[in-house]
Amino acid sequence: MANPILHFHGAAGSVTGSCFLLEAGGTRILIDCGMFQGSKSEKELNYKPFPFEPSRIDAVLLTHAHIDHSGLLPKLAKAGYSGPIFATAATIDLCTIMLQDSGHIQESEVRQLNRRNRRRARETVEPIYTADDARSMLPQFMAVENGEWREMVGGLRFRYWNAGHLLGSSSIELETPGAEGPVTVMFSGDVGASNKLFENFPQGPSGVDYLICESTYGDREREEYALKDRRDRLREVVATSNNPGGVLLIPSFAVERTQEVLTDLIALMDEGEVPRCPIMIDSPLASRATEAFKKHSAELGHGKAFLRALNAPNVRFTETAEQSKALDLVRGFHIIIAASGMCEAGRIRHRLKNWLWRRECTVLFVGFQAAGTLGRILQEGATEVRIQGEEIHVCARMATLDAYSGHADASELDAWVAEREPIRKAIFLVHGEERAREAMSGRLPKKVSAKVVCPSLDDAYELSPMGARLIEDRTHARIKPAVPGRPDWNNDYQRFVLDLSDRLKSVADEKGRAVVLRRLRRALDPDEVPAVDGRRDPDADHGS
Fold first, then answer.
1. Could you give the 3-state DSSP secondary structure of residue 455?
2. Is residue 261 part of a domain?
3. Is the Cβ–Cβ distance between 387 and 349 less than 8 Å?
4. Which residue, 39, 52, 215, 278, could crosslink 429 as a Cys pair with Cβ 3.0–4.6 Å?
């Protein structure tokens, strides 16, 4: 009997694209099949072929519905996978909504891109998958209950544990045959924070051979927020944002984060802590996801408060594009919650385009912003950004309230890992940017006895009785290890374009602007001596 082999095909050095392939006992199991987000270089991986043959996969185990964990499932089915996709019932309900929405967004964005490409005489492109592709694979979902062992061909079995991260989210324990007996492998999925409004504390077994653990917040501690403390901080943000002609924009993940923030806002208004004002949920996905939360409200902590918020007279959900566009005409202070949470797609980009240049706007980030995303760029203090090809000067105020994060922070992750002890062989840190993984890998050896490994994208490890062994040259990585989880050349290019524009605007006259452009041309082609009005460039011989 050969030892299990584990492949890291996503979320290795970055926080998106979660995808792990486990080969054991002649069975090939995929844990998650998520979409890459962040820099353009990472997102391009979504269009490339899978680094494995989809038709040879025997089963998919899905930890939860977030797109960075589930978003490429329709592509997987389209590429030939026809087997079961195991998930909790709540996860299936959310995926039914989210995957079709993802397909719709891709179709819409590709239509816009192709219009630009045709004008520029460039090749047109196809969406990764369509809404119809997403609908056609929904019958492959099979519901599982937490704590229930499921047997598979080849002697492998698995069970789900509540991860406390999102409605329906789970960690997954697998027991596989190995050369010297069963091998236990635990996938954390995304581990929930202790202060979640709707979710219970994350759970899991003790005593595993291998632990694959997320590290999103592996390098940071959040303040300890009781529910009242969190609402007090939110009250402060609303109070400082309440300009008579202004808006509080909240880029928010449409599933659970939106519902949590809405519940807190209405509670504050009901208690008279903040003035009642219009709250617009500008996301068709959030509207549909809210129906799924209503269906499962009995499973939620504070479920009654959530239902009360939905029925508040000042809450409106926009469905159509016309309703969304009409928000630009709203007068008086109001709050808009819109997806996507990292400002990478969806209606929040239209809202930002309309408001970022105004001082009456406050943007409140309530979730993790991955490197290279518009959300991270704004959060880090950019004064100029480009949205839909337009340069926008940023005058709006930025605020962050990480009390709503769905991820455990550093100490919570350490505690969750310690509860899995004894971890007999190794811990693999995934789903974290390099700084977060390095910080967590530096701390864990002082707390647990297992070896800590930080795999790179497309690495493969043999899970042997002696521990994890990297299989050299098993696969060729689709992207250089230094790229995931970082801004790429596209981000640098956009920054350069904005800096060049600022430089040209700052020069007093046309002659000065011509000098700047000549120097740029010389940098691009040092052997070429530019001419101005038919004369030799006077700067060419002086290196000025």
1. coil
2. yes
3. yes
4. 215
Task: Find the DSSP H helices in 168-243.
Answer: 227-241
pLDDT in tens, 297-334: 888 889 999 999 999 999 999 989 899 999 999 999 99
Q: What is the CATH number of the domain that holds 157?
A: 3.60.15.10
- 171 neighbors 213 (Cβ within 8 angstroms): no
Do 251 and 384 share a structural domain? yes
Phi, psi of 245 (to 5 degrees): -110, 25
CA dihedral sign, ordered 472, 475, 476, 482: negative
Domain containing residue 273: 227-400
Determine the Cα–Cα distance for residues 160 and 168; give it in Å rounded to an integer.
10
Model pLDDT, residue 516: 75
Contact 69, 115 (CB under 8 A): no
SS in 3 state form for 408-427?
A: CCHHHHHHHHHCCCCEEEEE
Please give the pLDDT value at position 538: 45
Q: What is the CATH number of the domain that holds 346?
A: 3.40.50.10890
E-state strands within 222-301: 247-251, 279-282
* Cβ density class 313-343: b for 16+ within 10 Å, e for less: eebebbeeeeebeebeeeeebbbbbbbbbbb
Cβ neighbors of 541 (< 8 A, separation 6 or more) are none
Q: Using DSSP bridges, classify how beta strands 85-88 and 59-61 pair: parallel, antiparallel or unpaired.
A: parallel
The 10s digit of each residue's pLDDT in 214-263 is 999 999 998 777 788 899 999 999 999 998 999 999 998 888 889 999 99
Token pair of 229, please? 């403390």
Judgement on whether residues 150 and 262 belong to the same structural domain of the protein: no
Q: Are residues 23 and 171 located together in one domain of the fold? A: yes
